[in-house]
Amino acid sequence: MPSFKEYSLTLAEPLLLMSMILAYTLLSQPLLLLKAPSSFRSKWFERMYVYLGPQLASSPLQIDYIESVMSQAHGLVLELGPGNGDQTFHLKANKIEKVYGAEPNEHFHASLVAKAKEIGLGDKYLPMKAGAEPQSLLPALQDAGLLPGTMTRLPEEGVFDSIVTIKSMCSVPQAQLPETMEVIRALLKPGGQFLFFEHLQSDASFITQCYVWIFNLFLWPALIGGCRLDGKLDKVIAGMSGWKTRNMENIREYQGHEVFRYMQGVCTKA
Ligand SMILES: C[S@@+](CC[C@H](N)C(=O)[O-])C[C@H]1O[C@@H](n2cnc3c(N)ncnc32)[C@H](O)[C@@H]1O
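ok -> structure tokens follow
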């Protein structure tokens, strides 16, 4: 049973993050809504993430786990939701043929390309304006020439050696997650790996679940680019067939009451 202090600290975590975001917006971007009303949401998230992304990416509580997952990416790679490219430095350029980044927010694309160059990937990082959901991802892969223009089903031999995602699958509408993961597995070559580090639903504590439910109603997704605190990636993967191995584990000595349950995973396609 967590102490009162432990509970208070975990419940304060999203509040603190949101206060930082609101303060940052009010102080540095007060006129953004007036200046860019049509693209306000994506532009605002991009500006905010330029500030927040590097801080989250350098968190000593997560950096080693993300390194251990991302550094395994090799060959032809698909990265889902790479954002600003704050995690790109974990990729090992000498193991990589090319990376396609499915990032729906176009405002991040220039920075993604620049960060890939910094780590020696040259022109091998190609951003695509797409989400991870099949209806968005598959046309982008067709446009990139990785899938045939007309097809009735995905190629049996797959396409990618590695598909990697860091804290992005929480932004995929959770009702579409099973279908999204089926396509992601199909896009891997046999023996290819799905590599992830994500925050997932923490369902051990009733108090935390109620708290998360309130945050998920509108506050959190609206402020954090569609992110939800009740991600179910682990449950979806556990219910799927077609994996040779599914190594998924909680990090940070998860005790059950935390709002953010982080998990790292390496799943190999059969
Ligand atoms: C919390 S940020 C993480 C960015 C980056 N992976 C990192 O760790 O620094 C979430 C990212 O997911 C992207 N995203 C939003 N909806 C998405 C979707 N449906 N599919 C894939 N990515 C999405 C956002 O644009 C954003 O760049």
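DSSP finds ten helices and seven strands in the chain.
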